[in-house]
Specification:
mainly alpha; 2 helices; flat; transmembrane; membrane; transmembrane helix
């Protein structure tokens, strides 16, 4: 991946995360609940992407 594409992707992820945190705080979602939701989503993504083949 070329460096400019990588930097744009990185900037998009950071801006999306900042917007999500700002929006959640604006509507009154506690930061702990947002973190817990992100942790559960990461766990689901991790287990969904696992290789289920036993060697």
């Amino acid at each position: 991946m070329p460096l400019p594409h990588f930097l744009l992707l990185l900037a998009a992820v950071i801006i999306s995360a900042a917007f999500t945190i700002w929006l959640a705080s604006a509507i009154g979602v506690p930061l702990f609940a947002l973190g817990l939701l992100a942790l559960m989503a990461a766990a689901v993504a991790h287990y969904a992407a696992r290789d289920h083949h036993h060697h």
